[in-house]
Design goal:
Layout (H helix, E strand, L loop, with lengths): L4 H13 L6 H8 L3 H14 L2 E2 L9 E2 L1 H10 L1 H4 L4 E9 L19 E4 L5 E6 L6 H5 L3 H15 L2 H15 L7
Parallel strand pairs: 4-5
Antiparallel strand pairs: 1-2, 3-4, 3-5
Helix pairs in contact: 1-3, 1-7, 2-3, 4-8, 7-8
């Protein structure tokens, strides 16, 4: 049972939504995925250990924040590398989006964007983890920030990855020991 890129979108949605109760239907609406895609993703995430059921409780699964941070830091860019394309209109991501954009001045190069016809920025196409990401983040700023950080981990320079790692730790509420 191998993870699919949309499973990371699902895991990050769980991470940013906190203790909010959900259904497969509500998640499918929020993520602009079918309920069966969300169901399959939850099963794969549970199998991988990135989601878990609290010990002794038959409740909704929760994010294994330490495991998710470790996977995103060390495996995300290898498992789901960025695919770039032509100049397009889209939604900024990686270092061109918050929270990373606050640490970078506007570069000479075009910014990375998720292609989307309703996007307001022209830049270099970065294939999102799932095709509906631009639409899903248009209605969820916390998910947007989380997925922009994920793209910073996927394709960024060492400096972008280091900063993205700090934001990832804050987002997931995990703390790494200093090197």
């Amino acid at each position: 049972m191998n993870l699919k890129p949309q499973d990371i979108v699902i895991a990050l949605k769980f991470a940013v939504m906190g203790e909010v109760s959900w259904t497969y239907r509500s998640m499918s609406i929020d993520l602009v995925m079918s309920a069966s895609e969300v169901n399959g993703g939850v099963k794969r995430l549970l199998h991988s250990g990135l989601l878990q059921h609290p010990v002794g409780l038959e409740t909704q699964p929760e994010v294994n924040r330490t495991a998710l941070a470790e996977f995103m830091r060390h495996g995300l860019r290898y498992a789901f590398p960025i695919v770039t394309g032509a100049m397009v209109r889209g939604t900024p991501t990686s270092y061109a989006a918050a929270p990373l954009s606050s640490d970078f001045s506007a570069p000479e190069d075009p910014p990375p964007v998720w292609p989307w016809e309703h996007g307001q920025v022209r830049g270099l196409a970065f294939q999102p983890l799932y095709r509906t990401v631009p639409e899903a983040v248009a209605k969820d700023d916390l998910l947007y920030r989380a997925l922009a950080v994920a793209d910073g981990m996927r394709d960024g320079s060492p400096r972008v990855r280091e900063l993205a790692g700090r934001y990832l730790d804050d987002l997931l509420g995990v703390h790494r020991d200093a090197p």
